[in-house]
Amino acid sequence: MPKRAAEDDVNGVNSGAAKASADAVPPAAGAQIEEKDVDMGDYEDPYGDDFESDGEIIELDSEGEEGAAEGEGKIEEIEIDNNQNQPEIYLPHRSKPLGPDEVLEADPTVYEMLHNVNMPWPCLTLDILPDTLGNERRTYPASLYVATATQASKAKDNELITMKLLSLAKTLVKDDAEDEDDEDDEDDEDSDPVMISETVPLKSTTNRLRVSPHAAQTGEYLTAALQENGEVLIYDLLPQYKAFDTPGYMIPKGAKRPIHTIRTHGNVEGYGLDWSPLINTGALLLGDCLGRVHLTNRTTSNWVTDKTPFFASQASIEDIQWSTNENTVFATGDCDGYVRIWDTRSKKHKPVISVEASKSDVNVISWSTKISHLLASGHDDGTWGVWDLRNFNGKDKPSPVAHYDFHKAPVTSISFNPLDESIIAVSSEDNTVTLWDLAVEADDEEISQQRKEAQELHDIPPQLLFVHWQRHVKDVRWHPQIPGCLVSTGGDGLNVWKTISV
């Protein structure tokens, strides 16, 4: 899993991707922001200006001034100019690189929701905290809980950050016919986005962070942070979660310390990490850059890590995914280009099946929650594919049921939509997140007609639904309780977004 240099990049979110000159209106979802020693981060969106951190709310006036409080940033409201020059579609695999006087501008008409959270440092990983606000939530304003961790320039400055994002408004597109006097009415407090955060100090960069999917049911928000120094820190973030919704609640000091630390891998770095979706007591798999996978189970009184690793080769374990319907089966994506299927009951600790998925590294994998025999893999050469595990018979080399080479840079994250069996999100080092619908047929008459009428679509796979632009994007996660909502992390912070396509 390639990293990036730690940098405080606060450029705006763009997508869809219109290319304009520097004299044009700033990006619709992220203007340049001037910051002064930001301790946490700023919450930015085109339609409101509230920022809340560690229990303190900072109200900003229309010019972003409020006594120059420490950690304060300027949040600008951005209006959509419908009279600007006709933009051109920007596609990273085909368009020329942006020039020094060019910026990308989001098209607000294709987003149902689009918000940006500026972070104090880049974050390589994030995850969604399950909540008790209900499933299939489609109303606005929306609320959600997120956990992430930083890649600071100095190890001692790293943090695990838990956030509640609330009052997330639906994206609005300004009508030209609107009376100018109505602009002042847009300052509706109910639509102003708010962020509340709690931090836990860390001593190293976090390569991957995952929250137990059983958190809301068990009452323990078990969160594992795989550190660059080889340690795996397990926290219970329930006190942080509780503090967001309980006025006056004080987080115990012990809540900022891990409840358990796994040191089985020594000082060997790793990227593979996953909680079992079927074992609610807590079963954690972790892999390292020497090809070793260790299983940690929670007992009634302790955490126990199997000292004998699962091992096939010295190729780095780049990603791990538990099976979504068999509690002893898991898959790994490795640097030697193989996807391997394992069974924790194996006394030999060897893979059951090994399949070459790519001539390059397999950076990421995703096991479908809806169709348990489908597994997606993303590769270092920019390609990605979907495999039918029923074809993994160990005799003949199987072919993927779907394969795409749209991205021209390494794939950094891949994820099946947990609420829609055919939708997949893929992020890449080409600064984009793409959404795909595998149920779309290439010979569909409507699609064929569109491709004939629009020359710029002739080389675009018909399954491609959407392209979201985000600088240095590293991880993307679907919200399991808000249909179509994604949270992605990149060099410009976190994006919370939902398109009209999903």
From TrEMBL:
Residues 40-53, 176-192 have a biased composition (Acidic residues). One of its GO terms (molecular function) is unfolded protein binding. This is Histone-binding protein RBBP4-like N-terminal domain-containing protein. GO terms for cellular component: nucleolus. Residues 101-165 form the Histone-binding protein RBBP4-like N-terminal domain. Signal peptide: none annotated. PROSITE patterns: WD_REPEATS_1 (PS00678), WD_REPEATS_2 (PS50082), WD_REPEATS_REGION (PS50294). InterPro entries: Glutamate-rich_WD_repeat, Histone-bd_RBBP4-like_N, WD40/YVTN_repeat-like_dom_sf, WD40_repeat_CS, WD40_repeat_dom_sf, WD40_rpt. Its main location: nucleus. WD repeats lie at residues 310-352, 355-391, 404-438.
